[in-house]
Write a structure and sequence with these properties.
The protein is an all-beta fold. The chain has a single domain (2-86), classed as Immunoglobulin-like (Sandwich). The chain has no helices and ten strands. The strands form three sheets. The protein has a four-stranded antiparallel sheet, with no helix packed on it. Strands 1-5-4 form a three-stranded antiparallel sheet, with no helix packed on it. It is elongated. The N and C termini lie far apart (42 Å).
Amino acid sequence: MCHVECDPLCNVTWFRGTDSLHESKFFVTETLVLDPDPKRNVLRSVVSSLSWSLSHLPATSFDFSTFTCLSSPNALGPPVNSSTLFRIECASEVTVRGAAAILVEPETALSRSAFKRKKE
């Protein structure tokens, strides 16, 4: 989620690395305009959310991807941006050196009891 206070209003564009996600068929953006809140000293703002489903592409294609939201400039100032590194913490199968592999089911919590060992 990217929240930018900007009055006059600005646009928010999302990037994966240097590639714009504006017309991507895999990523979905939702944008809301929030009214000012003088009691909290908050200007009118734009909130943009980026979402996607890992089931559409191999999960490893997103590993170590940097996602950035970038606002457009407005009459009062230059654009602002914020980035985050997306890291997949668990793969469906992890090979361990030796005679065993550890299978991790993504739906389960990551604890010792969630691991299932199988012999190779």
